[in-house]
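Example 3.2
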Amino acid sequence: MSDAPVPSLLTEIERDLLDGMPVADVLRKLIVLGGRAGSSELRDWASQELRGYADVLVDDLPDYRKIPAIIQLDAIVGAGGVSHLTIAPHELPEQAREHIKNQVLFFQGIGEIQAMIDGSGEGKTVRVSLPGERVLAQWMDKASGNPYQHINAIYWSVSASALEGLVDQVRTRLAELLGELRAVTPANADAPTASQAANAVNIVIHGKGNRVNVAHADGESASASVKVDQSADGPFWTLGRRIGAIVVGLATVAATVIAWWQFQGSA
């Protein structure tokens, strides 16, 4: 009796995804598939979801990683205290209002995000500290005019279900990618070609390219070449945006430092 045929890696990844395996595990196998296909595009996307988007500009962060949230604080006021007090962005110091909104940008890897969900506890919320939390707290304590007020923490409160939605978005993109790869991979092949994998990434992740199918008949396959649509945003535009973002970032840092000096001088 002959042994059952070993399923291809593509088939194995499809099975893992449909069986509800952790997204991080499926992404790791996708990196291996990208290696077999010779596709840097496939490897890069899966690696970025695993490692995070730390080196990406805000405008380039996928929309599903921009999650609505409320701003809350914990404080001691006199002999009492408050916890989880919700405030609006306009109640923050003026220097911070332009940069801190009711939205959190999640640059972390998908495994870290899943760990946040798992550790959200009974309240099913995740706390994310605001940038410059201590300076903001000191500004707000001083502006209150109450010497007995002390803000202990200012943070975004994010629903764990919203983060579950983020993870589900990645899972859906995995399913779409695998669907594209299955459509172009011959039945007797273990992996798609590099160009087929690149086109699948362009279609699903970047919204570019053209969808094609490979006919499977009597063990034979037909292939088609695809010219990937080029974005209107060329290298010059991209470089200009990056330079502009750096300039804005430096200006923001400088303004914050100056404001902090003024605060220290008036204390």
